[in-house]
Design a protein that fits this description.
homodimer; alpha/beta; eight-stranded mixed sheet; 29% helix; globular
Chain lengths: 546, 546
């Protein structure tokens, strides 16, 4: 429709002179500006909200007894952590009411660089999900590991223009120390007037000022109320995170009060597809917030208006004339069960699976055999602690397992190798290509031969997660998209993950923790105290390979 | 300073590793994000706030016992209504703590068109005041009068790009009726993704939806609490106005509550320089709001953060790292007496007067003599009501005065002429070139000869306000810039206006009203019910010249 005809029609429908395309009748409609619910109709024409009031439409849907909110917004997410392809991810979160995500494809960027970022953007563009792509700022996370790609300041300069902003600036010590490369990346975003997401720990007044003076405006890493309030005072939006690994969401809700309400958003950061399936997406944040004592209207405001304001997303985050008709119909505002979802006035649909593009294999390794894992140092072991990402220094004992990190991007042949305690693997091996942030192959084993089989099997299928016992692959989940994602539904993913977990129990592991999640962080140098990368054992205290 | 050096210095100062350029020590510093005051230092470097905390600087100013807020923002103003040149206006409002204005030069645009808009932008650019120029959308206001210029949709298209947005869209009936010219102007703003200011009366649900669906996001015309709430629900920011003619500011403050606080801003709209001098600028809105029961912190938030968010003004409206160091030091937060003001970390200074550009005379009239005012219709008169802008239909009596509107832009010779009751002019004449919105010459007289002298005198000096008695000009204030403004200080303006008022009392007028203000609205057709333009008597009911 020609723009002027479109505008005329909007005005005429808003005034009640013409019928709307679609009217949602008689629901409790949220007014996020005034902080209240009003029983009313919503008139939609050409994907736009013409008005809230008393309307009739060509199509009318009775939503009496339901609650209508704007589409939910996830303000910080690495969608690759779902293990689902962008298209399957989009379908999943849309079904939970999320219509916009601020996506930082940091994981695939560590594997494929800019090409990975472009892949995510292209695939999301095929969906009804509005994914605003942030350019990953810190690839690789450290120089103590081999990643698949590097994004240097020059590339940031070249690509920032077409991205929505610069992704979470994790290297906050680099900022505080005025590291040239860090500042060049930040300046590249400044020059294009692009927003920069933050990632910062601590409450030191001077460090916070030193970090935020560089222009970051968000942070999803606060873990205490005091930290949240210190961030907010410095102009930062605090992103209340509920992902697969979040532990203290309810406590964090305690930071919200009537004066600072507008400085919070919700995010998921890292959330596996099976967790989204079981618990929800941003509607889980809302449910937990209300469970922790927050008014429902405030949870809705945080999930919609605040997020839109934080990220300058015009005509979204509210139900008002001229706003885009991204709408969620909830059965209730306690559990936030989604009844149906509209994107630009259209019901959400499943998309055609044949449409998914899959990057060719990203696994490049030198030949691996049992011998590859033979010579291990015995002077030290990692002590893994269940339920924690932090590890400790330990000694080799009879229950120690072998842990290896096999470089898988460039075929360097690098293998980091050590002993590790706490997993209690009695037999076999488990391996995976999800290993933050460089996503090399991490393999844990009770014997060298099964370790080699596991690694070779992953190389064969293009990455994934596998469990091997007595020379046989007893379970494998292929994640052929960059070794991180599969083009499968969340239901199928959940079944695979359940079977993987059962398979590890056959290897003698306890069932009270998830070894795949634990292994995915065992290679992340920035988390203390002792980690293994493809370059060897990394000590967080000395901040070097030891 | 090279950008990277600048950023390094910011970080090092923020971390306390280097001295700041300037530190304001020990004041109560507002945190508009958290809604609280904190006793702290503010460190400033290169015009930017590096941090709030404990700092030392090359220069330090003790502000213990004072209250520090961000620079105030006037979100809707026609600066010409001050009667001061942009440079003198800037000095005046800066002295009251206003550092940013959203300026809609609608008055000078009606006289000079786009050239007037450009003039204001150029003159403001010479000052420390950050004036964001909105392109006047409705010039002329109606077709029932002769203005100095027309800004048509094509000109809107040409000039919108370099303006901050499209100025208040006063012709709301035109929008509701899908008038082509109105929609073309709106679309011109849409295409360039520019904001559009609103101007809308009433509480009719469908009319409000019909207006706001066109994309307006602000309104300064609400006069009741119910109207404000209906506007807010529709995504509109309500601009609480305190100008020279506002009557119910305190009542309007009653619309603000803890849920909708963030949807209000302050504005002055039309405020004469002498009123700003006597009562303040946006700090008057704050004082009155607090007087009406609002918390000081909320008044500060409305005057700063809300305004910056409403107009997308980055790095302003708060005191936080990386924000621009526009700061106001207040003696107190009840009267909001300004102690000192900083713009980009520098104290506000008086500027050089020789720097003011003055447009050449804008007065073009055909020769006027006493005869010009001879033939007046006697079947009808305007009944002027003191204290109101609304007029009524009356009859000619012995106390009636003559009223004329002399077209002054194009030398058409148009003279609108009628009788008017209520001014009680016993002798002489008063005339002025301030006459909303076309700013022709309006002249009120007890005799034709003094009326002619008054008009000719204004033509001679390039516009202004004059009082004539017994063939002599007894007082004149020249406003040679477009017939609207003079390059004089507010103090001088106040003296002139006082003398003009005293002069009118010599003509027998009562002292309980301001005849110059009343006359400035007597020619505005959009205010009911009977007005006079250069084309004749206009009836608001019939919406035509009668």
């Amino acid at each position: 429709m020609e723009p002027k005809e479109h505008l005329k029609k909007l005005i005429r429908v808003a005034r009640g002179l013409e019928k709307a395309d679609l009217v949602l009748k008689g629901g409790m409609v949220v007014d996020v500006f005034g902080g209240k619910w009003i029983k009313n109709d919503i008139a939609i024409v050409n994907g736009i909200i013409a008005g809230v009031g008393s309307y009739s439409g060509v199509e009318e849907i009775d939503v009496c007894g339901k609650y209508i909110t704007p589409g939910l917004i996830d303000t910080h997410v690495h969608p690759e952590s779902s293990k689902l392809s962008p298209q399957r991810y989009a379908e999943l979160v849309l079904s939970h009411g999320t219509t916009v995500i601020i996506a930082d494809p940091h994981e695939i960027a560590n594997v494929m660089g800019i090409a990975g970022v472009e892949y995510m953007a292209e695939e999301f563009a095929k969906t009804q999900l509005d994914a605003r792509i942030m350019l990953p700022s810190c690839v690789p996370a450290t120089t103590f590991e081999t990643s698949g790609a590097t994004i240097n300041p020059k590339e940031i300069s070249q690509h920032i223009k077409k991205c929505y902003g610069l992704g979470e600036f994790m290297n906050y010590p680099g900022v505080l120390n005025c590291d040239d490369e860090c500042l060049d990346k930040i300046l590249a975003a400044w020059y294009e007037d692009k927003r920069i997401d933050g990632h910062m720990f601590g409450v030191d007044e001077k460090d916070l000022n030193g970090y935020f003076v560089a222009g970051m405006r968000t942070n999803h890493e606060c873990t205490t109320v005091a930290e949240s309030l210190a961030n907010i005072q410095r102009g930062c939006y605090v992103q209340l995170r509920m992902g697969s690994y979040t532990q203290n969401f309810a406590e964090m809700v305690g930071a919200v009060n009537s004066k600072n309400l507008h400085r919070f958003t919700f995010c998921s950061d890292d959330k596996s597809g099976h967790d989204i399936l079981a618990r929800g997406h941003i509607n889980e944040n809302m449910r937990l917030a209300v469970g922790a004592g927050m008014e429902a209207i405030d949870a809705v405001t945080i999930a919609t208006l605040n997020a839109a304001q934080c990220y300058g997303i015009g005509r979204m985050g509210a139900i008002a004339p001229s706003y885009i008709a991204n709408l969620v119909v909830f059965d209730d505002v306690v559990d936030f069960r989604v009844n149906r979802v509209f994107v630009q006035g259209k019901r959400v649909e499943k998309s055609d699976k044949s449409n998914t593009k899959k990057p060719t294999s990203t696994i490049k390794i030198k030949p691996i055999s049992a011998k590859s894992f033979k010579d291990v140092r015995k002077d030290i072991a990692i002590n893994f602690i269940k339920g924690s990402l932090v590890t400790e220094r330990g000694i080799v004992g009879k229950d120690s397992n072998k842990l290896a990190v096999v470089e898988r991007h460039k075929g360097t042949g690098n293998i980091g190798l050590c002993y590790i305690n706490g997993f209690n693997l009695k037999r076999g091996a488990i391996a995976q290509t999800i290993a933050h942030d460089s996503h090399n192959i991490v393999v844990l084993g009770a014997n060298n031969s099964d370790m080699a089989i596991a690694v070779n099997e992953l190389a064969h299928v293009g990455g994934g997660i596998t469990v091997v016992q007595d020379g046989k692959v007893i379970k494998i989940l292929a994640l052929p998209i960059a070794g991180l994602m599969a083009d499968i539904d969340a239901e199928e993913l959940a079944t695979h993950l359940k079977e993987l977990e059962l398979a590890t129990q056959k290897l003698g592991m306890d069932s009270d923790f998830n070894p795949f999640v634990s292994l995915s962080f065992i290679s992340l140098p920035v988390i203390p105290w002792l980690k293994l990368t493809d370059k060897g054992l990394f000590c967080g205290e000395k901040f070097e390979i030891i």
